[in-house]
Request: fold
Amino acid sequence: MKAKDMSFMDLIEFRKEEGEVYLKGQRSLILNVDALGTLRKDLIHNLGHDRAKAFLVRYGWQLGYNDGINLMRNHDLDNEEELFKAGSVLFSMEGFARVQNDIVIADKETNTFLKKGKFFNSFEADQHLRHFGLSDKPVCWLLIGYASGYGSAFWGEKVYYVETKCKGNGDTHCEFEGRTLDDWGDSITSELSYYEDKTISEELNNAYKKIEDQNIQLERVLKTHQELSKLVLCGKGLKEITNNISRIIGHSVLLWDSNIDLLAFDQSIKEDRLDKIAKVFHKELYGNHLDNSAGSYDRNLVTDDLPLKKEVTIDNNSFWYALFPIISGKTTYGYITVLEEDTLKLDKESLVLVQRTIDIYAIEMMKQRQLSDLENRHRTSFVETLLNQTYATVDSIMERGKKLGQDILEPNYVMVLEIEDEGSPSNDKTNSLREALILSDSVLSKYNSSLAGTELDSRFVYLIPSNRMTKDFIFEGLRNLKSKLSKRNASMTAGIGDIARNVEGYMKSYQQANKSIRFINAFSKQERILFYEDMGAISLLMNTQDEESIIEFMSKKLKPIIDFDREYNSDLIMTLDHYLNTDSMRKTSADINLSLSGLKYRLNQIKDFGYDLQSPNEKFELQLALNIYKLTQ
Reply:
């Protein structure tokens, strides 16, 4: 008889009076697939992936081996080749899957055993997808065990099957391949442990040893955690915590705030390398892992088993780092990076220790933020009193300033920052602005350590010592801040009033700073930083509170020249501006590198539009319109 001609009804015998079912003379059971799938799910949940796989592989092997022995004893097949094929037929009859054999070679004379084929409708793949979804590895463990068991019974020595494709991890069907151990060589070494018979006592001993090792690790971790907690209680701070965690795990550790500014690093890192490391990580973290909203990170960075590990290049050397976000509630306080040259090997104990240290960092950073909030409330009250002139006496406000490290008798600019964070939802605006203030303080304090912002009327106010920070220096700091804010989808507008040279001058400087911001917003200036003094005579017009009239005056006065420049791509506006500022043909000619005849030609073009360049009133109105034009560009 051919294997393909085997009939299930010829193989099965029902003895309902005895409550027994026999398959080819051997008592068998008819099982529900969903129930077997539930058993499989529970095995994985309770034993873990590897132990469940080993259990099901050995169970399948025994099923296949028993079927193979039973068929060999009781078969009426034509030859050994048909007996070999019969395993696939019986396998399909029993409902495991439909088998398609592509290559079947079983030649004992040449000692060649090879079988390749496909499983269709694997019950095991379907059950795994139902309970766990897609896997990253093949999941038909019982099926592969069955094939190995049947092949071993037929061949007379152990043969091993592997699944090369699997529906359970996204393939359209499952594929298998079976060979002897000698033919497989080293390529099957990782699978052999699943076929090893282990007694319950062995499994329990292994489990006990694992638990014992975990307890020892946990004790060490808890002891270290207590030591680090004491550092916080003793006020040692972030630097000491970072040094200690680095010493314990044997890797370099760096601590960043939520804006990727370096807060602390361990002593093993050389100072001359810090700037380069900071630049690399600022680009690396913002470029790959952080989104643009305040204090937010990609939640795929950390898995249950291991944090993200990635390679970076610093000073032409390769480094590996692991990233751990420091989170409490919905607030991200910063990030820990564990860094090592060439490769990074974090054992489980070190991993657990770093993860526990996150809580310690969060507590310390939360404490520092609370202290900062308290200081900021005092500073806000002081600045509000100073700018609104609601203090009792000049001496009293001076004394309050000294306690906050602010000498108000020193000449200061009053600077106002308006920050719009479009990246945050409306219900998170308060927290977003808070993060913006922290970022502003962090950036601007690098330009002057005494600077600290104060939130007032939904804007941030700074008192900037004019004798220590020039206008160019202030511009540099603000542009750096603007760049950092743009990475968070936030925009910044800065207005700086005139220098306050006495206590009474702060109110006026604050008002001027707000007027500068109002001017920027009214005229949609591209440059979002403006000193009040640069507005010149236009500052007088701002007192009218009628920005539209100012724009209308400028547009009407300069319209013929602006239209001509746009149409012919000429420079009449620039020529007129230089001429009115010098009132000299020769100086204007030299300033704009134009011949006298060329300058006369351009001025005549301007006169042709109806401008009287000899009239004092006309020249004043043109200069005023030109100043407005330049400020609004």
